[in-house]
Amino acid sequence: MGQKYVDCRELSGDMHCKAILAADSKSELMEVVIKHAINVHGLANTTDFRKQINARVREGNPPIL
Ligand SMILES: [Zn+2]
Question: What are phi and psi of 7, to 5 degrees?
């Protein structure tokens, strides 16, 4: 089973963040990403931001850094 993941650098634009956030389902991933974005990057949980996350969700195994 593949995972869904988001590369935080693509999402937040913060090149210093090396976080790859992964989960088994999209809704789970959404929660993980939003929590990370709020706690680490001080971003707001808005509809627009959720759309951005949705657009950047990738399928498969996250790359090993
Ligand atoms: Zn991050």
Answer: -85, 115
Backbone angles phi, psi at 56, to 5 degrees: -110, 5
The CA 1 to ligand 1 mean position distance, Å, reads 25
Q: Considering the entire predicted model, what is its pTM?
A: 0.89
Q: What is the DSSP secondary structure assignment for residue 20, as one 8-state letter?
A: E
Classified as helix, coil or strand, 47 is helix
Residues forming beta bridges with residue 23, ordered by sequence position: 4
Question: Average pLDDT in the 45-58 region?
Answer: 96
Distance from residue 35's CA to the centre of ligand 1 (Å) = 10
